[in-house]
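Q: Two folds, back to back.
A: First:
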Amino acid sequence: MARPAPLGKPAPPRYGRSMSDIPQKGERIAKVIARSGRASRREAERLIGEGRVAVNGRRIDSPALDIGPKDRVTVDDQPLAAPEPPRLWLYHKPPGLVTTARDEKGRRTVFDALPEGMPRVLSVGRLDLNSEGLLLLTNDGALKRRMELPATGWLRRYRVRVHGTPSDERLAPLREGLVLDGERFQPMQVSLDRQQGANAWLTVALREGKNREIRRALEAAGLPVSRLIRVSYGPFQLGKLTSGAVEEVRARVLRDQLGLDAEFRPTDKARPPQRPADRPAPRRRRKPPARG
């Protein structure tokens, strides 16, 4: 019987590497499985732990393994599908959906609501149950992590309706940075758009978002939030995308904004953070699913 080919190169013992840290000749086994669409990275690690993954005919039990393009990977004795290149979609999330793959309370998720024909995707960041607006979706875990890093320097901009009358005095703690329940919030950009009777519309921008950060900060200022809409994430904008609709970002635009080459590897030509007003090139649109 032929002997199994040697395994891929053992991975360094360090976890949480960025895209630029990944060796060009090898990728983490769980990432390769995730890129094929077979499972998420976390699910791939579970499959590996259960002994259901083999590399070059040999079962593995640890995800700490980098493999190269010549290595043969199977899951449950079935070869992986060829990986797709990284892709990015803009999704107009309606309120009332949770941004998680599964919800322990049985609530409907954004992934339940996506149009038919969408591949398996991950969300870049989250929007809470009652928030709406721009949610980025990708098929690539490394791209997701890269875009979520505060070091990317991208502003996330929101339109927020509050109850009350905002004043510079009330908004000063948000602009200067505040601490709530022992958690420090970075300074936000906050401007008053208009006052409508007992309510007001604000524009709020921040570079990193903690759980319900805007709602919590404004409530602490005596301005409870009644509506929150994300309108941009870095150079990517909600624009006129209708609620429930999806648009794919062109590969060229995606590479340009993230400083990636034609093979989606990091280059030294990453573009500086852009204002949300800088609109990318047109994208393909998917219609929202029919409402039942």
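A: Second:
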Amino acid sequence: MVYLRETVLIIWKVKYLVLGDKMKPSIVFFIIFLVLLLASTASAATLKVPTQYKTIQTAVNAAHDGDTIQVSKGVYKEAVLIENKNINVYGMIKGGKLKDYPSVRGFELRSNSEGIINGFSVLKNGVDIHDNYNGKVTVRNNYFSKCGISIAGPSYTGHIIQNNKLSGGTISLFDTMNDQVLGNIITKSKIGITLGDGVNAKVAKNTLSYNKIGIRRVQESGQLVKNVMKNNKVDIKNVNM
């Protein structure tokens, strides 16, 4: 806010020194908008792991809102905590084989955190999003082995869980609204997707195979659209509380 005030004052001073009253206010405010847009773009940084920061966590701690963390291939024995930050964390951006994905134990996001978790092999703790009242997180294009993705509210902003592959893990949603679970592949799990009471998530075009239960719903929660079920013991189990 201080920078905004200083920018406005400088532009108005230049206006009167150069053009007096000839410049229209609409033009002045357009210039202010461009200056602020360029400033916000210039301030976003890309932090590289491990060339600049040895660990993902140290990069997260150093990052500011709007920054991107780029993680190279490797094994990172970390459970990364992201708290009250708006940052994107990328491993493999798209495509590639599993062996090329940086591996990590997991991510925990809380306290209004926002951003993207993309392109990791997650091996132990999974991705845990909780107490994230106003944050919106996208988790996409990751591999999960014997762990999964958990969202526990209260949360109303609409997280996106998309194009992940889970083996032996579950996508769980509790006390959260407006989420989307799209295009994930889940196999060999006790439960593929769990939807708690009152969850209104859109669950669409996921493939669930060889699970004990494909989708477990409390009180028929969630909107199920064009999900593919293959060789599950139970495809959809509705539970009444």
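Q: And?
A: The CA atoms of residues 92 and 129 lie 21 Å apart.
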